Amino acid sequence: FSASCSGCGPGYRSPLDAMKGPREEIVYLPCIYRNTDILKPDYLATVDVDPKSSTYCQVIHRLPMPNVRDELHHSGWNACSSCFGDATKNRNRLILPSLISSRIYVIDVGTNSRAPQIHKIVEPIDLYWKCGLANPHTSHCLGNGQIMISCMGEPSGNGKGGFVLLDGQTFEVVGNWEHPGEAAPFGYDFWYQPRHNVMISTEWGAPKALADGFNPAHVAEGHYGRCLNVWDWTTHRKLQTLDLGEEGAIPLEVRFLHEPSATEGYVGCALGGSVLRFYKTDSGDWAAEKVISVPSKKVEGWALPEMPGLITDILISLDDRYLYFSNWLHGDIRQYDITDRKSPRLVGQVFLGGSITSDGPVKVLEDPEKQPQPRPRVIQGKRVPGGPQMLQLSLDGRRLYVTTSLYSGWDKQFYPDMIREGSVMMQIDVDSVNGGLSLNENFLVDFGKEPDGPVLAHELRYPGGDCTSDIWL
């Protein structure tokens, strides 16, 4: 990958080196049938995103799993830029956990990147018996060659934020990363920063509470998280729990700045409609402050009298200049200049579907941001069902890919049309100099036209790594 280094390991020497990497040609997306009317296995789709290709914007391969109702969700790598200095490491396996079945699929993407195959299956019983954990979510490779996967629960469906370690060669479950009795009450995402000996993890909710949809009463009953958990990276001890309060309810994706010496990052809080900056204080502990707020809109014709934006995915460009996030319910993606880390500045916004389109059943009665209700988004004759959700930015920061499915149980509740019509994948052109977002009208992958019927496509990964999977040491 890098001309300046022969015989080095996977990824890139630095985030800025990664920005000079080759343009993405294919992406991998898990496609989910759970909670649809189609009883078929979830599968991993390979999509051609090379404009020069004859199969541009098409699914060129589908790898079905051997089971049904897994709920494939997020994926990670057996090796990333954290192993850059190790020439024996190769980014050739995609780690693909199942959120509901608790299976972990290890996918061989090295033999033929355009047609991946299953390499190994870690069965749920290994997670249950060896770790007392279930509902695996985020996987990151570690510099030592192991793979670490955050979990959201324990086998009976209650919340439990622990971490499973896999052997990087055999992919067998090694055991827990955290010490006995020190798991957080809830789990979801995590990011580590070895230079500061820290890992920070987030909290979604108890799997059995969110499995089939969102019940607002469950928030008051304490089935959803609102804390950041700070861990000592070397000793694996939990150091701090930062209660983010109501404005920080349901903190999902956590992103340190990519620069490995940075002592700060951002977390998107879904229910609170806010982005918080977390940072190391002068006294050496960690704190968090709200730096972006998306106010709820007063509405009629919807389930509740107020509609939150529901910030679901956030990411940071590799040069740490821009922050992006999606408001899944309001239907917009926003781009912020974060050059001033404490005062992000909105520089781009684009609406792609959502729940408040001007021709829909919902009427906005009061909007603190005073925006008109957006028109429905139609691309190549296809009306976009659902709202923008998972994001992935090209290495050079000029193309933002978007899918619309959040999680099948919530898709079914909030966007039943997406269950019927399938999700879509879109691409946004990014002005990475001055800021600005515009939809590429020539790009659409319609997962409503899949051979076995409409499907829910979720997270996006490039074979060579990207700004949400790679960590630099």
Largest sheet: 5 strands, antiparallel
| Helix-residue proportion | under 10%
Q: Kindly report the oligomeric state of this protein.
A: single chain
Number of strands: 34
Membrane topology: Peripheral membrane protein
Family: Belongs to the selenium-binding protein family.
Pathway: Organosulfur degradation
Pfam families: SBP56
Explain this structure to me?
The chain is mostly beta strands. The chain has a single domain (15-457), classed as 7 Propeller (Methylamine Dehydrogenase, Chain H), CATH 2.130.10.10. It is built from 6 helices and 34 strands. The strands form 9 sheets. Strands 29, 30, 31, 32 and 33 form a 5-stranded antiparallel sheet that branches. Strand 22 (311-316) and strand 23 form a beta hairpin. The radius of gyration is 20 Å and the shape is globular. The model is unreliable at 1-7 (pLDDT under 50). Keywords: Acetylation, Cytoplasm, Membrane, Nucleus, Oxidoreductase, Protein transport, Selenium, Transport. GO terms for molecular function: methanethiol oxidase activity; selenium binding. One of its GO terms (biological process) is protein transport. InterPro entries: Se-bd, WD40/YVTN_repeat-like_dom_sf. It is found in: Nucleus; Cytoplasm, Cytosol; Membrane.
